[in-house]
Amino acid sequence: MRIWIDADACPRPIKDILFRAAERRKLMLILVANQPLQTPASRYIKTIKVAAGFDVADNHIAQAVDAGDLVITADIPLAAAVIEKGAHALNPRGELYTEGNIKARLSMRNFMDELRGSGVNTGGPARLSQSDRQAFANQLDRFLAQHLKV
After folding, report:
1. 1, 31, 68, 73: which could form a disulfide with 7 (CB 3.0–4.6 Å)?
2. Distance between CA 54 and CA 89 in Å, rounded?
3. Could you tell me the pTM of the whole model?
4. Rounded to an integer, what is the distance from CA 96 to the centroid of its chain?
5. How many angstroms separate the Cα of 84 from the Cα of each of 78, 79, 80, 103?
6. CA distance linking residue 66 with residue 101, whole number of Å
7. Interval 2-35: pLDDT, tens
């Protein structure tokens, strides 16, 4: 299993949690972004710089992910694409996207997109809190314990 990060929008504290998890579990962690990234020196951490453009990083991840991999993303269409390939998706606030909840999340995302397109200010996501970081770390630990034979 590999862990992929949609790294352009992933908050730094979440990346730090993932860096530590990759080292501790000896898992390949791949960050995909359209800009250079700073990562700790590690044989388990790799970066892929893709061209700038709408959904270029997402498309790279969706094409490269294998069944059983984990993708860290807040992008719901990307989460849907990786779930369709048999991979797993976890958002930076600790919500695990599944076959059971992704369609509802996609519908809500599309509805909010329509509202924004019609001029309604829907606001943005709340700032990542300490409890969000803890929820992410807890969900990641549960996921890895369940999916890795240690």
Report:
1. 31
2. 20
3. 0.87
4. 10
5. 10, 9, 6, 11
6. 21
7. 999 999 889 999 999 999 999 999 999 999 999 9
